[in-house]
Amino acid sequence: MRIVSLCPSNTELCAYLGLTDQLVGVDDFSDWPEQITRLPQLGPDLSIDLERVKELEPDLILASLSVPGMEKNIEGLDKLGLSYTILNPNSLEDICNDIVTLGGLTNKAHEAASLSNRFREVMKQYKEISEQIPCKPEIYWEWWPKPIFTPGKTNWLTEISELAGAKNLFRDVELASVQTDWTDVVNRKPDHICLAWVGVRQNKVNPAIVKKRPDWEKLQDRPIHVLEEWLYCRPSPRLLTGLVKLAAILHPERYPAFEGEDMFLEK
């Protein structure tokens, strides 16, 4: 089967189902697993070269609406008469369902059911552990430093925080992404600060920027964790790996140790 993926989360979903070898083209931002970097790049996920997609003669096009503006890709696919499947998960359960959906489309139903069940077992295990933690720390997640963006209630990081024995500092805001200011963050008094800047490599995230903000002295005893954006900012199965890593950081005495980023991939 010839598969084209139009966003990183879909590309990563293919990797978890062992479909990487069937990918024939990906968006410019797909960067994992390493072998897909040799594939034809079809443009940024908000501006895919749809004529090139058509030239690849795909059997399956995996589209998305996870970022505002992706509607243009869908409209273009329709104009070209190309069929597609939209995967647009907003929660860990949605990701489990998408695994099953993709498995059904690619003759991988058995593998998809097995992987989805493994994910749900981990989610159940972490939920049970979290429920036994009496005092849950509050996490300030920073997605972007200027202006400040942080996930709200309807984002998967609220769910991941809860499963990791913590609380999202902005869980009271009924949005997926919240634009706020540093004064608001300081007034909410987070216990941990997690920096995962969208589209920025981990080694380029600079905690010194946070420490130079007004009233930093009020939070200076709070730990800052610089985390991989690809484990927390993309709605792919890698979020579960991010959960396992976060839980091990926050409560190493309660949760299993983190075994590495490929812990859920088939060996």
Quaternary status:
single chain
- Tell me the distance between the termini: 22 Å
State the total count of DSSP E strands.
11
| Shape field | globular
Helix-residue proportion:
25-40%
Count of alpha/pi helices:
10
Strand content: 5-15%
Largest sheet: 4 strands, parallel
Instruction: Find the structural class using helix and strand composition.
Output: alpha/beta
Low-confidence stretches: none
Elements, N to C (H/E): EHEHEHEHHEEEHEEHEHEHH
The radius of gyration is 19 Å
The pLDDT mean sits at 95
Strand order within the widest sheet? 2-1-3-4
Task: Give me a quick take on this structure.
This protein is an alpha/beta fold and 267 residues long.
Describe the structure.
The chain has 267 residues and is an alpha/beta fold. 37% of the residues lie in helices and 14% in strands. It contains 10 helices and 11 strands. The protein has a 4-stranded parallel beta sheet with strand order 2-1-3-4, covered by helices on one side. Helix 4 (92-105) packs antiparallel against helix 5 (109-131). The longest helix is centred in the middle third of the chain and has 23 residues, at 109-131.
Keywords:
alpha/beta, 37% helix, globular
What is the fold's blueprint, element by element?
Layout: E1 3-5, H1 8-16, E2 23-26, H2 50-55, E3 60-63, H3 71-79, E4 85-86, H4 92-105, H5 109-131, E5 138-142, E6 144-145, E7 148-151, H6 156-163, E8 167-168, E9 177-180, H7 182-188, E10 192-195, H8 207-211, E11 224-226, H9 229-232, H10 238-250
Parallel strand pairs: 1-2, 1-3, 3-4, 5-8, 5-10, 10-11
Antiparallel strand pairs: 6-7, 7-9
